[in-house]
Amino acid sequence: MKVLELLDEIVEIVDTSSGVPLTGKILVDAEEILEIVKEIRVELPDEIQQAQWIKEERQKILEEARKEYEKIVADAKDQAAAMIDTNEITVQSKVRADEITRIAEANVKGLKMSTYDYIDNILFGFQEKMSELNSVYLNQMFTNIQKTFEDINMTIDENRSEIKNMIYNENGEIDAADAEYSEVDIIEEETEE
């Protein structure tokens, strides 16, 4: 392409031009550059048209190839389908596949039922164990509570006896060892007065 050659010529001019110190700029011959640009303008439309034509031709070729490919694939599918439908092995394979599917479904159903039965047995055993533990621990808990109440009652009785002894000792009337009558006797005496 002529345009690419002209662009290479501009690059060569820039590379070989002398630079202006401390500016990073170069000195080029403006007329020489402008002449090359004019030539590019003249050549460019022809090359653009040629490139456009190549692009269109390429697109047409790709489209024709795609259509041919789709036609070949469709024909191959039709032939394969016809061969498969008429093939005795395929028919027998379908029958066997249906039979295997039916057997597999029956096995799955039986396995599910066995699993449900197994889980139910485990849950039943767990339920019985919980009932057994409930009765054992409930009786034990009741016994513990009863003993706790008895211990509390005994402690209260002991505390009451101590309080009575303290009262008698404070009044000086009766020694704790000599105190034979209960709080009930004291209450009865107070009510009689």
Jot down its keywords:
193 residues, mainly alpha, two-stranded antiparallel ribbon, 2 strands
Note down, in words, how this protein is organized.
- The radius of gyration is 57 Å and the shape is elongated.
- The protein has four helices and two strands.
- A hairpin with a 4-residue loop joins strand 1 (19-20) and strand 2.
- The model is unreliable at 174-179 (pLDDT under 50).
- 86% of the residues lie in helices and 2% in strands.
- The chain has helices spanning 2-16, 30-86, 88-171, 183-192; strands spanning 19-20, 25-26.
- The termini are far apart.
- It is mostly helical and 193 residues long.
Strand content: under 5%
For the report, how would you describe the main beta sheet? 2 strands, antiparallel
Q: Tell me, what's the shape?
A: elongated
What is the helix/strand order? HEEHHH
Helix % is over 70%
Q: Average pLDDT across residues?
A: 79
Distance between the termini: 142 Å
Strand elements, count: 2
SS-derived structural category: mainly alpha
Q: Write out the strand line-up for the largest beta sheet, numbering strands in chain order.
A: 1-2
Given as residue ranges, the uncertain stretches (5+ residues, pLDDT < 50) are 174-179
Radius of gyration: 57 Å
How many helical stretches? Answer: 4
Short description:
With 193 residues, the protein is mainly alpha-helical. It contains 4 helices and 2 strands.
Q: Can you lay out the helices and strands and say which pair or pack?
A:
Elements: H1 2-16, E1 19-20, E2 25-26, H2 30-86, H3 88-171, H4 183-192
Helix pairs in contact: 1-2
